[in-house]
Design goal:
43% helix, Rossmann fold, 304 residues, alpha/beta
């Protein structure tokens, strides 16, 4: 038996992936980091497939909440209540209609959940990974910033110092939908930067990759968007699932499960585009940015 810790498993592709992992690998004990009723409902659904599922209430927008949850999981690992830790899937993500949402710690919420939370959790679990192990961080091809990858729906990332990106109002006209979506694409670029930096620092046998599900309507990511965007996501984009640019939720979830289980061949530091490892954007390969982002995340971890 081995443990998989997973965020973002209560809806969308994460919920499908969690189901697929439990069905395909009966040696997995799944630890869900989730919240409230959605976490409890998911727990009941997954326990119908396997008894090897544990829910730990987690607020990914709170450094104290992340720290408390990690301490709970680590205590279970240390006491032998959970089998050895061999996998982590950071699938949780948020997107807002502005760039002004803030966490209790004062960070812009998109950056906090999509970037900082993964780093803080990995730092907490790092000493307990047992090789061979795999870490998968869900990102987005919006980080390319071009029409081919975004269809013009999401603005290109706008990189700045991490200290600026982590604060509300980092982008022009921060109260607009454009700013909210820019925060999202920028956060996904930042997540890839961190994957590259983690790949340089993790020991042999503990691999980390980023996973891009492509454009997937119906995931709930646009639940805070306006009525037109929600209509497009529910009614128009699903019709494009017959094309190569769009996947359904079940298809994307199965591909995420394959990435988690190591069935998709990809060396550490790779970018998995749905079902194969390909290069991420040219902008995403920048060791100076990656070092600075790591240092900022470490500062947040120690001061939070």
């Amino acid at each position: 038996m081995h443990t998989l810790i997973m965020t973002g498993a209560t809806r969308g592709i994460g919920r499908v992936a969690a189901t697929e992992v439990l069905r395909k690998d009966q040696e997995t004990h799944l630890v869900l980091l989730g919240r409230g009723e959605s976490g409890r409902n998911t727990l009941d659904e997954l326990r119908a497939i396997s008894d090897n599922v544990t829910l730990v209430d987690t607020d990914l927008a709170s450094i104290d909440g992340i720290r408390s949850s990690a301490e709970t999981v680590n205590r279970m690992l240390d006491q032998g209540d959970l089998p050895p830790l061999r996998a982590f899937a950071g699938n949780a993500g948020v997107q807002f209609v502005d760039a002004l949402h803030a966490t209790p710690d004062g960070y812009e919420t998109t950056f906090a959940v999509n970037v900082l939370a993964n780093h803080l959790l990995l730092r907490a679990f790092e000493p307990r990974f047992s090789a061979p192990a795999r870490i998968v961080i869900t990102v987005s091809d919006t980080h390319f910033g071009d029409f081919r990858h975004t269809g013009g729906l999401v603005p290109a990332p706008r990189w700045s110092d991490p200290e600026t990106l982590a604060r509300p109002g980092a982008f022009p006209k921060p109260a607009t939908v454009t700013a909210g979506r820019t925060a999202y694409s920028t956060s996904k670029l930042a997540a890839i930067h961190l994957v590259h930096e983690w790949a340089r620092r993790l020991p042999d046998g503990v691999d980390i990759v980023s996973y891009n599900p492509g454009l997937v309507p119906g995931t709930g990511l646009v639940r805070s968007a306006g009525p037109i965007d929600r209509f497009l996501s529910r009614r128009v984009l699903p019709a494009l699932s017959i094309t190569p640019i769009v996947d359904t939720v079940p298809a994307a979830g199965r591909k995420l499960a394959d990435a988690i289980l190591g069935r998709t061949a990809a060396p550490t530091g790779s970018y998995i585009d749905r079902s194969r490892a390909v290069p991420s954007s040219k902008e995403s390969y920048d060791p100076d940015r990656e070092h600075r982002l790591w240092d900022f995340a470490e500062h947040a971890r120690k001061d939070g």
